[in-house]
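hiii so my PI (J.) wants the whole complex modelled not just the main chain, which honestly fair. so below is everything: two entries, each one labled with what it is. i double checked the lines twice but i was tired so who knows lol
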Amino acid sequence: MTEVVLAAAPTQMLAERRRFRVLRKLAAHRSFKIGLVLVAILVLCAIIGPMLTGIDPTAMSIRSRFKPPSARFPFGSDQYGRDILTRVLYGGRLSLSIGLSVALISGVFGAAIGVTAGYFRALDPYVMRLMDALMAFPAILLAIGIGAALGAQASSIVVALSVAYVPRTARIVRASVLVIREMEYLQAARVSGAGDLHIIVKHVLPNCLGPLIVQLTFIFAYAILAEAALSFLGIGPPPPAPSWGNIIAEGRDYSVEAWWVMLFPGLAVSLAALGMNLLGDGLRDVLDPRLKIET
Amino acid sequence: MFRAITVRLMQSIPVLLLVAVLSFILMHLLPGDPAVVIAGADATPAAVERIRRELGLDQPIWQQLLSWFLNLAQGKFGSSLVLNQTVLSAVAERLPVTLSLAALSLAITLPLGITLGILAAYFRSSWIDAGVMMIALIGVSVPSFWIAILSVILFSVTLGWVPSSGYAPLLTAGPGPWFASLIQPAMVLSLFQIGFLARMTRSAMLDVLDQDFIRTARAKGVSEWRTVGKHGFRNALVAVVTVGGIILSLLIGGSVVVEQVFALPGIGRLVVQGIMARDYPLIQGTMLLFGFAFVLINVAVDIIYTLVDPRVRYD
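here's the output for the full assembly
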């Protein structure tokens, strides 16, 4: 009922007040705050960290191979004598950008497809059957197949993971659209002569934003984990440019003698995924308490 | 009951067909020429051309799709280019490994995930709840292959409790070695599922424990154990079964990576090898089987759903 009143109210003030309420609730949510701080620290490290160490992440030094963590190499060095701390910081740029790109692309295409299926009911069965079929393949296998088809590089990982996550996003958006389209304010808009495009942009999209944002934070977390797994399987961004996944993959062969090579990038992946999951939990509690976890 | 199964199976036919078409498209997306792969690096162009004609790859794409469908209808999934065996026999050979891994992993996941979820819901907002949710959150945030490598360093290299890789078949090697070869991979694989299941069970239990019938049960003196275990969990089970399909698909996806780390000769490893070797019929066939398995698992979940909750109908 409040939805109806708010959406029908012509004043900007009510919408603004609602936005403040959401922000206040988020500010009071503990796991949201922890997640936000974690993610913020990791993003900051990825952006300014590399400038602070001032070392080339691909610079090799035969004399300092496999140095354990020390003052000179806080995270140790790898088989080429490269500084792991610097590589993890640079790797964060690549891994976090891959996560962000996958989340954004899945969001845009998932929303477009979900709105189409939910709003134009005639198209719904065809669109959703296709999405069901895509979801029948395990996400990681679909990504391996597409990644292999496009070649080992960062952009093909983004495409591969997006294809895997778009159907899941579309399903969630469609479910919200199905509820929204029955709302009175939507019928009111239609009766007063609003066109489909106007209704979708002004009423449908803003109202399914909550579940969508929640889903996208989880996709961000999955994408970071999946990038690492794909790199491990040899379909990631190719070395020597570091990503968290390919540092772990390279360190695997020396995991017993030089555990630090794979330990620290793995910790970075875990912290990033943990941060995004905490953020997502907080957003879900505030934006959409009824939403269940979806993969 | 029989009617419900039939209806649900009929509904899944369009999806199964689409799954088949998508497997076909995926194979044709892969770069490279299968004929060149089969003929080998130093084959003459004429030989390559001959093989291409034999495989029917010179025909228009829709005709290839049609003939693939006709073969599928006869149960022919084609032959691997590299392994010198049919796709079906390659899959059949590796299926026991993946099924053993999945079964063991489920045997760990279900009791642990559900118990943790119930405990967290029952002791809501206490340190138990916070602890369980933290474990669950770590479970879904840690990359499985990374924890697998760490686990190998600890349990195989340092302590020497279990082998670090390889598979010991149940029938030839006996249950002891079989279990030893699988327990570590299964536990690694369970980590994510346990976290996921505990979170789902907790939220389902929270919904149920607030209901009036729980208060009634307590008021009339039903023991706490029965109230939560029987009245509560029975009803939360419906929501838990709903995610059963997701759990199983996570299991299938996760096994691809875990089999790779522990060098287990299962289906996941077969597909990855197929993709790396550009073994087109193998990729196409196994992807199709994965897709089919997933769709059928979901049908099974829906049917279990009707058994657990008689209110649900598929008509």
